[in-house]
């Protein structure tokens, strides 16, 4: 039997014949990066390979790095391993990594979702022998409503607050979720103010051709009446900081897949919760795994035991990798940008 194309090492997921890592969590000479979230893309690697659409957001997040980009679907060969990147539908530039060597094909998914999203390329099933899948929301309780329904709920909440003279403070992750929300809200309701961690990423999205409504930093708002009708997009950490006091009386909300859990909104101290995730729900995970045709599935970060047991019951060879990815639960580097 051929040796595994991807194995676990203390630094991360390693390809032995290619001598490179995928989304390593410790510094390595060569890293293939699936996407620019901070738990998958870290500073300190010698050389980075990522998709061409990810270049702008990666440079915003990581600064000056030795970055090589590859268009989706285009393959390169490294030490006899054929490497190509394919859309994961998670955030701008997110990729699945396809490796081919000695007749075997492995795909590492990174994070992904199968629902439509106008801010990034849609998920593309990639046929393979072995599929490494995330399981952030890998429980049958997680089933997402269509985006248009969630955006309609957000617009109604914003309009109601604006009519009452309240700012609408919507917390979400600054990369990916913020831009997805911006792409779906009704900008005619009022001004949109964003945190300093969000605006550089907005610029990277616009530079990549993604259409977003106009956004401003709070320092750019001269009419205080605008703030009382504004939609404010900021990371969760900002909701508990002095920055938020500048908006006066406000209604607060959090947009996350975790809002589907009973009590999550209350524990976070939010007035409202919107169930919106950039990860696949349970039906999406099952659909994506099935579309690969893989008979061996390796489950990473999330609901690993449940997924492994269920997939084994379906007749697949199911196992797991232990990783240091944070799924949808963390945004470690929002303080890298000033609030402004």
Which helices and strands, and how do they pair?
Layout: E1 7-9, E2 12-15, E3 20-22, E4 30-32, E5 47-51, H1 55-62, E6 67-70, E7 75-78, E8 81-87, E9 95-101, E10 104-108, E11 130-135, H2 147-163, E12 167-171, H3 177-184, E13 192-194, H4 199-207, H5 224-227, E14 231-234, E15 250-255, H6 264-268, E16 272-274, H7 282-292, E17 296-302, H8 304-313, E18 317-320
Question: What report would you give on this structure?
Answer:
The protein has 340 residues and is of the alpha/beta class. The chain has two domains: 7-141 and 278-336, Metallo-beta-lactamase, Chain A; 147-274, Rossmann fold (3-Layer(aba) Sandwich). It contains eight helices and 18 strands. It has helices spanning 55-62, 147-163, 177-184, 199-207, 224-227, 264-268, 282-292, 304-313, and strands at residues 7-9, 12-15, 20-22, 30-32, 47-51, 67-70, 75-78, 81-87, 95-101, 104-108, 130-135, 167-171, 192-194, 231-234, 250-255, 272-274, 296-302, 317-320. A seven-stranded mixed β-sheet has the order 7-8-9-10-11-17-18, covered by helices on one side. It has a six-stranded mixed β-sheet with strand order 1-2-3-4-5-6, with no helix packed on it. A five-stranded parallel β-sheet has the order 13-14-12-15-16. Strand 1 and strand 2 (12-15) form a beta hairpin. The longest helix is centred in the middle third of the chain and has 17 residues, at 147-163. The radius of gyration is 20 Å and the shape is globular. It starts with 6 loop residues before the first strand and ends in a 20-residue tail after the last strand. The model is unreliable at 329-337 (pLDDT under 50).
């Amino acid at each position: 039997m051929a040796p595994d194309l991807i194995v676990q090492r203390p630094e991360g997921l390693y390809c032995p014949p290619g001598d490179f890592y995928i989304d390593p969590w410790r510094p390595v000479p060569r890293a293939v990066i699936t996407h620019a979230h901070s738990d998958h893309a870290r500073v300190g690697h010698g050389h980075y390979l990522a998709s061409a659409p990810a270049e702008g957001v990666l440079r915003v997040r990581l600064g000056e790095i030795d970055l090589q980009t590859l268009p989706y679907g285009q393959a390169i060969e490294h030490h006899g391993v054929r490497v190509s990147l394919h859309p994961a539908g998670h955030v701008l530039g997110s990729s699945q990594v396809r490796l081919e060597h000695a007749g075997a094909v492995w795909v590492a998914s990174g994070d992904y979702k199968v629902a439509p999203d106008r801010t990034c390329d849609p998920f593309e099933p990639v046929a393979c022998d072995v599929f490494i899948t995330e399981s952030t929301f890998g429980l049958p309780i997680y089933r997402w409503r269509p985006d248009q329904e969630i955006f309609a709920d957000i617009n109604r909440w914003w309009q109601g607050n604006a009519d009452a003279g309240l700012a609408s403070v919507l917390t979400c992750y600054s990369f990916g979720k913020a831009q997805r929300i911006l792409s779906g809200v009704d900008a005619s309701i009022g001004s949109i103010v964003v945190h300093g961690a969000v605006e550089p990423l907005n610029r990277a999205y616009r530079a990549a051709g993604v259409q977003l409504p106009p956004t401003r930093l709070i320092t750019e708002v001269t009419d205080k009446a605008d703030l009382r009708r504004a939609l404010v997009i900021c990371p969760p950490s900002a909701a508990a900081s002095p920055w938020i006091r500048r908006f006066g009386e406000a209604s607060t909300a959090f947009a996350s897949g975790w809002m589907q859990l009973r009590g999550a909104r209350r524990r976070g101290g939010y007035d409202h919760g919107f169930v919106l995730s950039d990860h696949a729900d349970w039906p999406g995970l099952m659909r994506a795994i099935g579309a690969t045709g893989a008979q061996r599935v390796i489950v990473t970060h999330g609901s690993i035991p449940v997924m492994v047991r269920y997939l084994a019951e379906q007749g697949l060879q199911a196992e797991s990798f232990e990783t240091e990815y944070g799924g949808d639960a963390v945004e470690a580097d929002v303080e890298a940008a000033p609030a402004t």
